[in-house]
Amino acid sequence: MNLVNYGLKVFLLVLGCSFIFPLYWMASLSFKSKSEGYDNPFGLPKVWVFTNFSKALGKYHFFTYFKNSIIYTTGTILITLLIGSMLAYCLSRMEWKYSKTVLIYISLGLIIPIEVVIIPLFMMVKQLGIKDSYFGLLLPYIAFSLSSCTLMLYAFFRSLPKELEEAACIDGCNIYESYFRIIMPVVMPALATQCVLLFMRIWNEFPLAFIIAGRDRLRPITIGLLDFFVSIGVADWGLIGAAMLISSLPTIIVYMIGNEKIENALTAGAILK
């Protein structure tokens, strides 16, 4: 039994290192010179080149793409959490005729991949006249994020005792006051978890942004990074590593901050049951 446990620990350690290795490779590559990127691709830099970052920022319109990604990510998170949490609350805490039908309809959004509807979605966005605006990407992002957000919060809301609303009603709260003042603080761990998951998903999203965001001034950081790779080719891996590291930092920081929130959400739902 001890040998099995030891083997399992070694396997998990190797598996964890395999997950960390791409981050290490990207970070080490960003500090290497043009020639060392070919001669020493996986080792630590022999000569640390810090100018790769300034050169990458000069050739790569980082701040424009960064601003666009912030707009898409923040807008999607705020609207999705507002609509998704209210819909989940209605489905889980209220009794109305077509609640089960709506729940099934929302669940269908999880099994429809983006690639299947990309062409009709592009035509719809173009016909609505919002292709050359931020709403051209914001609306699809929100639509594709609502299903997972609603179903996760639905399961969380169902674990809450009914006495919370009953006590709020006795104290004179209406349905909106009960939701925003009583229920929302209780489910804050789940909302924080959704914030982290939505941020990582929208920040790293590529297919929709590549198809719909046609103008350079509307493109997020993932499409800007592709344009940067195409412009410089594979001649300077140090610049490529620096650009990748700069683009990945927000996701890494958000996950490091929100990792504990995800664990709290998973345990909070079990405790509240």
From TrEMBL:
Transmembrane segments: 7-27, 70-90, 102-122, 134-157, 178-203
Mode of membrane association: Multi-pass membrane protein
Cleaved signal peptide residues: none
InterPro entries assigned: MetI-like (IPR000515), MetI-like_sf (IPR035906)
A UniProt-annotated Pfam family: BPD_transp_1
Assigned keywords, A-Z: Cell membrane, Membrane, Transmembrane, Transmembrane helix, Transport
Main subcellular location of this protein, as a coarse class: membrane
Domain ABC transmembrane type-1: residue ranges: 66-258
Location of the protein in the cell: Cell membrane
Gene3D superfamilies reported for this sequence: MetI-like (1.10.3720.10)
Family: Belongs to the binding-protein-dependent transport system permease family.
Protein name per its UniProtKB record: Carbohydrate ABC transporter permease
